[in-house]
Amino acid sequence: MGPTESPDRATEVLGPDVAENVIGRYSMVRDYGLAEFHWTRASRGEPWEGHHVTLQVHRLAHRDRRLVNETLRARYGRFAPRLRFEKLRRLLERRGVPLVEIPEHTANAPYFRTFWQPRAQVGISVIGTHGEYSTPDRLRVGDVYKIHVPMTTREVEWRRTQVASGGAVAP
User: What's the pTM value of the predicted model, to 2 decimals?
Assistant: First the structure.
């Protein structure tokens, strides 16, 4: 499932066990444990449009198997409590899928680093250094924190522009 799927399709695929948050009239998040789907709409009468999906990989460190939706467990099996970025990177490179490091938001640097796969428009947030109150205690440096789809070329260029101008993100 991609970020443009409808709320009905998400429920059809992942089931009704979901925490739903409607933020104001124009944003909605459905949390399926590991996967969060985000939708927006122009007005109350308009249909929801898919905005992005985030895989909250850091939640696996809690070792609560209920955090991974039954549908995902049935399809992919057991999930390890941590996903090491270098392992993921090696697997992707063997498949011809390179990752590029991009600037991190200043508020998150140096605690997090972001890597991007341009063709798939996927962003991967990784623990860069441990920081008390800044990073989860159960994760180590080099663990994947989350995977975000889409991370558009526009967002990546904005981050790079901010770094070049001394703005809101750090390399």
Answer: 0.91
